[in-house]
Amino acid sequence: MPGSPFFVELRAMLGFAGRFLREGFRPRYEWLELVNQCYIIGYRSLPLVGITSFIMGLVLTLRLRPTMVQFGATSWIPVMVGLTIIQELGPIITGLMVAGKVGSSIGAELGSMRVSEQIDAMEVSGTNPFKYLVVSRILAATLMVPILTLLADAVGLGACYLGINLQGVTSVALFANNILGRLTFGQVLPAVAKTFFFGFAIGLIGCYKGYNAAKGTEGVGVAANSAVVLSSLMIFLLDLVAVGVSTAFGFI
Amino acid sequence: MLPMSPVTSPAPAAPPTPASVIEVVLTVAGISKSFGENHVLQDFSLTLHRGENMVVLGKSGSGKSVLVKCIIGLLAPDAGTITVLGQYVATLDHTALDALRAKVGFLFQSNALYDSMTVRENLLFPLRRHWLADRRGQEDQLVRQALDDVGLPQTIDQLPAELSGGQRKRIALARTLILPPEIILYDEPTTGLDPVTAREIDQLIRHVQQKYHASALIISHDMNCVRLTADRVILLAEGRCYAEGTYDELAQNPDPTVHAFFA
Ligand SMILES: Nc1ncnc2c1ncn2[C@@H]1O[C@H](COP(=O)(O)OP(=O)(O)OP(=O)(O)O)[C@@H](O)[C@H]1O
Ligand SMILES: [Mg+2]
């Protein structure tokens, strides 16, 4: 078993993560490239994440309403939708969307740079390509996914408010009070914390796949594709781990 | 210890003819390199002198690119030593290796231009990354100069994808030459180009040799390129230095492996 391709790959990926930890926090720091990647990974993903979380918030509210009307619990809609979005849907949707958009483009970009020897060219030009390309992207993804998630949460809640008002009238103050009054720190903190790991996984897997892409144009496609598949799967696995951890620490 | 001992120093104005050159700038001593069961290089050696153009000739897959990548430190040989400008490549740390690489130009077989950057940014990359504080003020001028040298000043704001294959090769050459190198490694500079463009590249190589008095190791199997650029030719076959001499000497060599290239 330990010799199977799965374990070989797993060990290589852990080695890659170890190299990130070793090299990432030692000079020379690539600040410019980090800012550039934050712009690309964070800012450029805003529309996609915004639209998807808006639709999720709205659809969820409209779908939930008939059931809640039956139970006479319409006043619980905001907090139910709010909790669902903040704890699960916001992080997961952001994670999946970023994995699809950013994970694949990192995989393809680094893959084609590997295949066409651009990574070697950087190395002979006085640049550590691991720091310049990999560290900057992993850090940017780790920092941007939590921020995008918070924005997705806000947009989702806004859509929920809109959904409620399509079939009745609720003031913003009442809505906010309804949610914020019942949210605890212990419900929000783990939900935000796990998104750092989502971002790290997306950056790490995309970079690993691209950086180690096989020669030939086929290698680029494989790198991009497996980066998306693996990081999407990883997001669900991490989400499962997060539930376990928060339960263990009594956060739920 | 170091093989860098000028016996006589040539007068500064002396023309760089191979006969007047004695300083060794690059030594490859008995290197071997295998990828698994694929024994690519086996006990390969060569010596390159200052101001000399040496061509390494060899079949496709004979390990020519592996050889130059070992010289520049991108691959580590399994055995043997490589000495570049008096320094053992294998023992250098990052800083020293970077400093050495600033003096060695490398033209990649695939050009390796950065797709996401314009021609200007491509040329600025080695200039900025090699921590050459003294060149800060003249970056723009150096870029224009390098582009003029290869005859493509109008492409400065274009992306590599917008250029033809021959233009890309020249831009890659400009990027290699922007930090005036002491040694230039050309990996198949003319492969895939039409004969006219290929001869222009040959002339550029000769021009660079004269202008910078640089040494060059040229990987090629384009016999016209070999004839026009080589002061000395080495045939890489069976992982080792199979034959060595001037173009004319090798052309007379009756050995079938050598003769096959000149047929
Ligand atoms: N990174 C690598 N991993 C495994 N094998 C490699 C690697 N690089 C080169 N090889 C193998 O080494 C051999 C020589 O390759 P190399 O690229 O040096 O050939 P070449 O002489 O430059 O050929 P060409 O003229 O086609 O460029 C090939 O069999 C190749 O498969
Ligand atoms: Mg080659």
From TrEMBL, chain A:
The chain crosses the membrane at residues 41-62, 138-164, 184-208, 220-249. GO terms for cellular component: ATP-binding cassette (ABC) transporter complex. Keywords: Membrane, Transmembrane, Transmembrane helix. It comes from the Bacteria. GO terms for molecular function: phospholipid transporter activity. It holds the Pfam family MlaE. The keyword Transmembrane applies. This is ABC transporter permease.
